[in-house]
Amino acid sequence: MYRFFTIIVCITSLLVATPGNHVSADEVTKKILTIQIPVEIDTEHLIIEKYASRGHINNKHKKNHFRPIGRKVPIRGERGKFRYDIDLSNIEYFVALLYCPGYRIETLEFNIKDRDLSKPWVPPFKKLPITSLNGRLVDSRNRPIKDVKLVLYYDLHEVVHFDGQMDRSVPRLYIASALTDDVGAFSMNVPTLLDDPFIINNKWHFAMS
Predict the structure, then answer these.
(1) Which pairs from 189-192 meet CB under 8 Å and 24+ separation?
(2) Which domain holds residue 77?
């Protein structure tokens, strides 16, 4: 029994020590992109869209080479979670789109071979101007409706122009919310999305001929 145990240990040691079989920590993690969110950001409604292509896209008007990575759904943030890892194995060119309520939409594009993946991507989170939306919720008889949560969303159709996928579903972005008071009144601070460069540069156009 003692001799059998010794043989197993020696063989295992030999396999680990052989240069051809050794995998360093850097090799294991070099295909992982880490997105690091500053701790002061509320990540509950964070959305990360991720794409890949087979090579660098030179013509910015022909981005239909992009394809979603993994499942065709975005990464959705969790409150209190500030690190998000994306597996970039078997990918040559990577594109990411990040949305967080109240901030500009940020994008990231790079060739995998040119990117130092040991360094996380920390989005800049540039705030958008805010406008106040006030109103009152009443029923058909003009009676106030209290304690109702109103949520404002925006369907990001501009992403179709960005990635060129005409048959895709678009992400629904959380914008703001408010609770009606005893007289049905509500107020919410709404970011002006029309001031977002991503919205401006990827306006939704549709035509049939």
Answers:
(1) 189/130, 189/131, 189/132, 189/133, 190/130, 190/131, 190/132, 190/133, 190/152, 191/101, 191/102, 191/103, 191/127, 191/128, 191/129, 191/130, 192/128, 192/129, 192/130, 192/131
(2) 24-201
Q: How many domains does the chain have?
A: 1
In a domain? residue 31:
yes
pLDDT at 29: 47
User: Nearest to residue 174, comparing CAs of 100, 103, 64, 68?
Assistant: 100
| Distance in angstroms (rounded) separating the CA atoms of residues 177 and 77 | 17
Condensed to tens digits (0 to 9), the pLDDT of residues 148-202 reads: 999 999 999 998 888 777 777 889 999 999 999 999 999 999 999 999 999 999 8
In this predicted model, what pLDDT tens digit does every residue of 47-100 receive, in sequence order? Answer: 999 887 654 444 444 444 555 555 556 899 999 999 999 988 888 889 899 999
